[in-house]
Amino acid sequence: MSTDISPDQKPGYRGLANVPLALEPLNRKDFTSDQEVRWCPGCGDYAILAAFQGLMPELGITRENTVIISGIGCSSRFPYYVDSYGMHSIHGRAPAIATGVASSRPDLGVWVVTGDGDALSIGGNHLIHAMRRNVNMTIMLFNNRIYGLTKGQYSPTSEIGKVTKSSPMGSLDTPFNPVSLALGAEAAFVARTIDSDRQHLTAVLKAAASRRGTKLIEIYQNCPIFNDGAFDAIKGPEADEAVIKLEHGQPITFGTQGSRGVVIRPDGSLDIAEVAEVGIENVLVHDAHRQDPGLAFQLSRLTDAGRLLRTPIGVFRDVERPAYDDLAREQLNLARGDESSDRDGALQELLFGKDTWTVR
Amino acid sequence: MTTESGRTSSTPVHTLDRVVIRFAGDSGDGMQLTGDRFTAESASFGNDISTLPNFPAEIRAPQGTLPGVSSFQLHFANYDIVTPGDRPDVLVAMNPAALKANLADVAPGGLLIVDTAEFTKRNLSKVHYATNPLEDGSLDSYHLVALDLTGLAVGAVADFGLGRKEASRAKNMFALGLLTWLYSRDTESTISFLQTKFASKEKLRDSNIAAFLAGHAYGETVEEFAVRYEVSPAPMPAGTYRQVTGNLATAYGLITGAHKAGMQLFLGSYPITPASDILHELSRRKSQNVLTFQAEDEIAGVGAALGASFAGALGVTTTSGPGLALKAETIGLAVMTELPLVVVDVQRAGPSTGMPTKTEQADLSQALFGRNGESPVPVLAASTPSNCFDTALEACRIAVRYRTPVIMLSDGYLGNGAEPWRVPDLSAIEPIDPEFATAPNSAAADGTPRFLPYERDEKGARAWAIPGTPGLEHRIGGLEKSAGLGNVSYDPANHEAMVHARADKIAGIVRDIPDLEVDDPSGEAKLLVLGWGSTLGPITAAVRRVRAAGRVIAQTHVRHINPLPANLGEILKSYDKVVVPEMNLGQFTQLLRAQYLVDAECISRVRGLPISPSDLANDLTVRIDALTPETPATGSTSEETK
User: What Å distances lie between residue B365 and A33, A113, B316, B377, B590, CA to CA?
Assistant: First the structure.
């Protein structure tokens, strides 16, 4: 067996393959800026920021090659609090801006921070196209199912009937299920996690770092001011009954001591059954690496569209697909050829073209 | 003057100084290609050229109808010309619709070459010709050459085993061959062009060449033409020339700008008429370190470009008016983050979708003011197709030096129009230094070195550190930032200071802008005609006519719209009257009036076409005469004059 290390096997995370590693180990503090964090007390964003800052040293890349791009909304203040390069951009456009960053610089690790309004309403178009192209970036979609920064209007993930300042008689909009949307948009890596479950959140972010391309991570995040308790069912004492944890290669069970499981009915639909009744061998084994997104989509539909009482979390889909910017660089390098070639001469030749005449 | 030429024919050869030819046919008839080839032949012969393609927005409008007519006009001459010409001397009409749509423009006595095969009863009725104009005497005041071009072309390619429909497509090459003979052009360049174009399609290659040569031979053998013509080469400054369209020159200017800055050129763009050709050209230039990204929409195009700039590339986006509207918010972000960004707007007739294939200059106000807040942006306007190169290069230089978005205004007329271009010597172009920050530029109170991203240099440009630079990590964004430090700030005094700092920085670019020169040979002109952007050609042509008719007029042309040249105010005040021809309702005029308190008058044309030099000459004449008690003798202003 060869001991050579191919680029795929070098130390570090494959999703960050071309990003320089820090020579000296970094710590959480290195990723903490001098700015005072200004989210509301009790906001779920604090926990996500802490988990992120805790994870970064573990990923091993340098601070200066870490780039965070955000849109507009409460969560989009995130870059100011991480001592790396960052841009707090405009509403909805972070995936587009990050596409330019990632495409022009293979040596940068790019994270996008966005919210349910930013990513799914005004920025819906950029989000789906980033995912279908599979540009190298990790999108952390903070979903609190409400507009926080503008003080409490319903969002594209708010449930039908939600009473807010702009929907006094109840919202009429059918909400998006971000995981379903991402799977429909050809995303190769799609996951969901919860702000308060630091261990799970960190594990999902790490899994994302192992994969090239666009990683969409929906993070359920509590807004204590305008939508407090939206995720109580999956956080409270009954959480075991509400949270369906997806683990690759494991039967999908949940409830007290895994008493309930996800099964495929003869008509192809998914259903919840008592494991004792159907037998553990008949419970669906989760395969995140399945190329066909159909089953992952069906799993995403186990999420309540209304008030959230039950939902799967974890990595729904994690498949290999070439990243747009890797391919674009490949084309560029192919066209550019040898580094030693005469760039000035080639450009001068281009300007002349093939059809010239000389005036003396 | 008639010169006997023994080159290939015994037909006498007349020497002309200028000719305007218009090729017109169905949009599927290959008129753009035919015109383009004849242009290349004329350019390589050494004539000065100017072209005006004119095509319908519909890719294939119903055959034989007026909306389906596509045309290509070429003006070539033995002196430097400035417009594609007002009135064609020659019209090649491939069907009744093409004849009907273009006849009114043809100069009396002009040559009409018409394909009789298409003058069927059905085609005539499609365009409401009650009788056949080729037979009813209505064309008696023209030199009509009615030929069965289709039949002749089909005959010429009979040996290649093409179907009739396919064979008849060669009629454009037959017509080209005929014109090539008529104007004593060389056949070689078109033959080698066809050989390359259809290299992999032997049958098409051979049949097109056969039709082209047959057309040439037809002119030589048939006694339809009593004389043929020659337009001698134009005197031009020494150098190596090529033909270039405005869009191509823009692409080359952008590539050269990034190359001179040692940066990758990143284009984020969304297809839109008439700007898409820049995207096409840049997409082919990966070997020049050009990365192109066809985005999901206009907003993503400019967003990705700004992201690339943030990462240290030269971000560029190309669009037309409706796209510029969509990009406004991101351009505002570039103003706030003070990052380089080049935005090319190839203007078209608006508002809204307007007339996408027609030209206009009505995005000026949008470029200057179309953003929220105080968001000053340098605006440059190209004046000719080849000037698009210099303008794009200058836009790159300003964007990088001043860390600012720059809007370059071109338009459909410049973008698609072609003219000879003296190819610049790359080594003579000044490099552009991005001056990336690599070390802390200040120290905290305790002496710790630190980086201030909003610390400004003597030009007012901020320090720019790109990701990957250790120790200079910082965050930027759309929120107002504190001076120097760059932290989010809502401080009233800071905001006011930053608004002024951004405005002063842009106003200060004037130091890089040359003073405006006025063409006023006698120094006695009372009226100044001032243009901007693509009206340079038509205005210059009109001024020549006015002067040829014995009147005195001064002319100047603005390419730097923001900031304006330093001496403009002084120039405006030294004339009794200032008129500003514009392809809008007076947007630049309004700016001049507001800025300089001068009673400038707009001569407005919004017809989707370049301003007509003869019309403009008349408008100018009226205004000059109104200023002059005694009117000088009237001379002809009907033609563009040397």
Answer: 41, 35, 21, 12, 10
Q: What is the DSSP letter of B353?
A: T
Instruction: DSSP for B19-36, please give it.
Output: EEEEEEEETTS-HHHHHH
> If you measure CA to CA, which chain A residue comes closest to B263?
A104
- Which residues in chain B are contacts of A110 at CB distance < 8 A? none
Q: Which residues pair with B421 in a beta bridge?
A: B242
- Residue B428 carries which DSSP code? G
- The whole-angstrom separation of Cα B311 and Cα A87 is 11
Q: Report how far Cα B343 is from the mean position of its chain's Cα atoms.
A: 16
Amino acid letter at B273?
Answer: T
CB contact (8 A) between residue B237 and residue A69: no
Asked if B473 and A65 come within 8 Å (Cβ–Cβ), the reply is no
CA B180 centroid distance within chain? 26
Each residue's pLDDT tens digit, B443-501: 999 999 999 999 999 999 999 999 999 999 999 999 999 999 999 999 999 999 999 99
CA distance A50 to B437: 30
Report percent pLDDT > 70 for chain B. 96
Rounded mean pLDDT of A301-309? 94
| Cα distance between residue B503 and residue B377, in whole Å | 9
CA atoms within 13 A on the CB side of A28: 7
For A52, the token pair is 């992120």
Which residue of A33, A89, A349 is the best one to mutate when testing the B interface, meaning the one whose CB has the most B CBs within 10 A? A89
Q: What is the pLDDT of residue B189?
A: 86
> 3-class DSSP state for residue B443?
strand
**Greatest C-alpha distance within chain A:** 95
The residue to which tokens 């006698």 are assigned: B522
Q: Is the pLDDT of residue A4 over 50?
A: no
- pLDDT score for A8: 47
- CA-nearest of A222, A173, A235, A177 to A74 is A222
Position A12 scores a pLDDT of 76
Determine the residue of chain A that is closest to B236 in CA distance. A359
pLDDT tens across B565-583, in order? 999 999 999 999 999 999 9
Task: Report d(CA B323, CA B309) in Å as an integer.
Answer: 20
Give Cβ neighbours of residue B51 (< 8 Å, ≥ 6 apart). B35, B36, B39, B72, B73, B74, B75, B84, B416, B417, B418, B419
pLDDT tens per residue, range B251-308:
999 999 999 999 999 999 999 999 999 999 999 999 999 999 999 999 999 999 999 9
Of B266, B242, B528, B473, nearest to A63 by C-alpha is: B473
Would you state the pLDDT for residue B213?
A: 95
The residue among A246 and B46 whose pLDDT is bigger is A246
How many A×B Cβ pairs under 8 Å? 204
Mean pLDDT of A302-311: 94
Contacts of B289 in chain A (CB under 8 A): 332, 336, 343
Residue with tokens 């071309």: A18
In chain A, the N- to C-terminal Cα span, in Å, equals: 69
* CB-CB under 8 Å, A337 with B296: no
How high is the pLDDT of residue A9?
A: 45
Helices A94-104 + A124-133 axis angle, to 10: 30
Q: Is there a contact between A85 and B291 if contact means CB atoms under 8 Å apart?
A: no
Minimal CA separation from A344 to chain B, in Å: 8
CA distance B224 to B465: 71
**Bridge partner list, B634:** none
Q: For the CA atoms of chain B, what is the radius of gyration?
A: 27
pLDDT of residue B10: 62
pLDDT at B631 over 80: no
Residue by residue, DSSP assigns A256-280 as: GGG-EEEEE-TTS-EEEEEHHHH-G
Instruction: Enter the pTM of the model.
Output: 0.89
Nearest CB among B293, B296, B487 relative to A125 is that of B296
